[in-house]
Task: structure prediction
Amino acid sequence: MNQLLRGCLGFCGSLLLSVCALSPLPAFAQASKTDQWIHVRVESKDNNGETVKVNVPIEMAVKVLPAIHHEQLQGGKVHISKGDLKDVDLRALLDAVRSAKDGEYVTVQSNEDNVRVSKNAGYLYIHVQERKHPEKTAKVESKVEVKVPMKVVDALFSAGKDELDIVAALQALSSSGDTELVSVKDDENTVHVWIDSKNISD
Result:
């Protein structure tokens, strides 16, 4: 779970730094109230109790991402190596999910994890609950909830065979209205990712 959290924070941090470096200050002031913003809020549960908030206009992110060339992220697209896919045809899976009826596709319940993948009303839902010490306690230590519009998933896979188009996904996301995207809760941090038309985090 910490690896997922670090990846999320690393991406958001890189995006924010790129926005600050490549965009003139007046660009923030010129943003319209109707523009969609992507928000990331991370609350640490350690003794310092630090809270980090990142607010970036999606329109600005769409312009900045193509200028980033770092490891797998190149020109707004993320390259996926065959080793990462582990012989799984993601496009075939996407086509199957897209054409399938709404319902709960995967349910896994064990002493260590509870996983549920479902589709409903044009959204793909992923819920994961992880127990770090199932033999000692039944308390859920980590919880991940993801809600993604299917049109965003389609846009994400609109690039080449081994690529994810982040820019296209953000463009599709900007037309989805106010949406809760990701919620992560564990014994170290709470992470919340969402989009709305506000230029500040609540």
In short: The helical segments are 2-22, 26-30, 58-64, 82-85, 90-99, 150-156, 166-174. Residues 2-196 form one domain. Residues 1-9, 11-34 have pLDDT under 50 and may be disordered. The CA atoms of residues 109 and 115 lie 7 Å apart.
